[in-house]
Target: Thymidylate kinase
Amino acid sequence: MTIPGRSTARRKPPHVLANAPFRKLWTAMSVCSLGDWLNLLALTALAGNLTAGWGYQAQSMAIGGVFVAKMLPAVVLGPLAGVFADRFDRRLTMFFCDLLRFALVLSIPLVGNYQWIIVATFLVECVNLFWVPAKDATVPNLVPRERLEEANQLNLLVTYGTAPVAALLFAVLSLADDVLGRLVPFLAQRETYLALFVNALAYLISAVIIFSLKDIPRTVTPDGAGTPSVLRQIVEGWRFVGGDRLIRGLIIGMLGAFAGGGAVVGVAKLYVGELGGGDAAYGVVFGSVFVGMASGMFFGLRLLRELSRRRLFGLSIIVAGLLLVAIALVHNLVIVVLLTVLLGACAGIAWIIGYTMIGLEVDDNLRGRTFSFLQSLARVTLLLVVAVAPTLAGLFGRSEIVVGSDPVYTFDGSNLVLLVGGLLAAVVGIVALRQMDDRRGVSIVADLIAAVRGRGYAPETAEQAHGMFIAFEGGEGSGKTTQSRLLAIWLRDQGFDVVQTREPGSTKVGMRLRAILLDAVHQGLSARSEALMYAADRAEHVEKIILPALQRGSMVVCDRYVDSSLAYQGAGRELEPEDVVTINRWATGGLVPDLTVLIDVPPSVGLTRLGGAADRIESEPQEFHERVRREFRSLAAAEPDRYLVVDGTLPQNQVSMIIHDRVREILPDPVPRETEDVTGTMPAIRD
Ligand SMILES: Nc1ncnc2c1ncn2[C@@H]1O[C@H](COP(=O)(O)OP(=O)(O)OP(=O)(O)O)[C@@H](O)[C@H]1O
Ligand SMILES: Cc1cn([C@H]2C[C@H](O)[C@@H](COP(=O)(O)O)O2)c(=O)[nH]c1=O
Model:
């Protein structure tokens, strides 16, 4: 349900970085990410320097050792780190982790030998394992739910966006090391030392920021009597991840994406070489993954804002898998680069959705373990796939399809690895989609088309409904009640089963809400509670009356529906239109009428038609009712196919005729107007 073309000025919601606690955490995260990348560059370079005399093979293995030391802790310590994040004060966990990282990185140049690099790297990674889930689990506590996706976009941006900054900084620091080495002889020993000092400083800065961040909730689970043992908490975390359908789907999907990504990383250099590209081409392919990820995260999500997030998650992994298959089969470097951008976009979309959904759906006391479970498994998967992929490619060798004596198509080990990786990701995406789909039975294609057009999806329940839903809207005294009754009678005449209903007040609860909402004694009711009460009445109405009737195949004729809230609470009370849309979409499950009849009269006419004492809303000033009218008209103008606007100052029978003509167009098998003129209606019913 969209509300384009509205007349009310929209207040732009504040940017997520306007939220001071999140901004602080994000700054600490950015500084740490920069430090992490600097750490990787400095340590691999230092390992290479320190082992320069060991021979080429030993030197390569020494550099590889740094990577292994970085990956290994996840396997061993991952589960424990998650429990830590769920059990202890997250702020202090992050603070002490930062201090430890600072001390460890500082010790590397001071000790200055290869063995200590490996030990210190392993220890720093162990500490990281505690820092990251504590941070991930904290983010959803600092930002409102609706801003979590945006917050995760920014987090991912600094996690990867700091890599090129770190590379540049590393180059500058290496040069500076040479110059400063003349003043401080210690720095002259290795040109990576200065980078390591800056890296250590980054962790120290983060520690100071985190310490000042008092908004992080102090403890998650009270530690003491009654707190389950660490082992029990680990098992509880695993059980939760394995037992919850949604989380299982998310984790399977994200791991599938990692396996596919690992396959690319493992054989990319080989594959680009096969395509005739050199190091520069390899760099372009590598870079295009990141360009794609950034575009997917920012533009892809915006473009498909209206699609169910669960569906989009599964779909993006399936599409990523298929793109990988295409990359494996197409032997053209330019096309491969383009496909890689799209692949990155799908990965970016899936990653943001996965992270956001874990943040939203997992209880605070389990979130640390869930993030840490994901983090550990992702690293293990990446390690395994990166190790196995080149070996598999090497074992397969090369095959050629030869026509005559000319080879027309070559398929080698790197193609095979990409193909298998792609198929695996596609299958995993399908499994994830099945586990998580929140719109079973509703066509994905229809959903996608609606989303691309910027239209919210109709809910599952509405799709399953067979009846027809007609709503009447308009200002006070416009004639809605009169016309909806007449239409119900006419439809019954036509042989339809009709449920005629109204808002607010068509259910038992709704009747009580109506009394609160309209009784003039409740002056001063806040605009938000008013909007929520109308939405509550609507939720009850949709669930208890409208949907069951539609599912039976009945015609539902309803006097007022969601547009009344958009007009009265949105425009009349000047509430944020998006908020009114959101609560009503949630209340109704997105159920939209097949036709909305707007009976338009100037408030000066409508209000004078009403007899009796004015209720709480009728007694609002003229300008209020003018705003309401303008909003109704602009809603109708924005969706002319769904609306019929009738001039309510016309005589009643003329208004009825116009409505009948329009409704006849959408009725299944209507009685033709000429026949109706001859046969007439049943007076008994009309009376
Ligand atoms: N086309 C019309 N011309 C003149 N009077 C009309 C017309 N339609 C309805 N009325 C009269 O106006 C009064 C209000 O009509 P009705 O109750 O149908 O309006 P409504 O839009 O449902 O009002 P409310 O906003 O209070 O629900 C009634 O007395 C009705 O007979
Ligand atoms: C559904 C709905 C209604 N209102 C207002 C509009 C009217 O003043 C009353 C309903 O009275 P009626 O005589 O039954 O038309 O409630 C609103 O402000 N918001 C809504 O969503």
Notes: The beta strands are 398-403, 406-412, 468-474, 498-502, 555-559, 595-600, 643-647. The mean pLDDT is 85. Residues 148-181 form the longest helix (34 residues). Residues 474, 476-482, 609-610, 648, 650-652, 655 surround adenosine-5'-triphosphate (ligand 1) (CB under 6 Å).
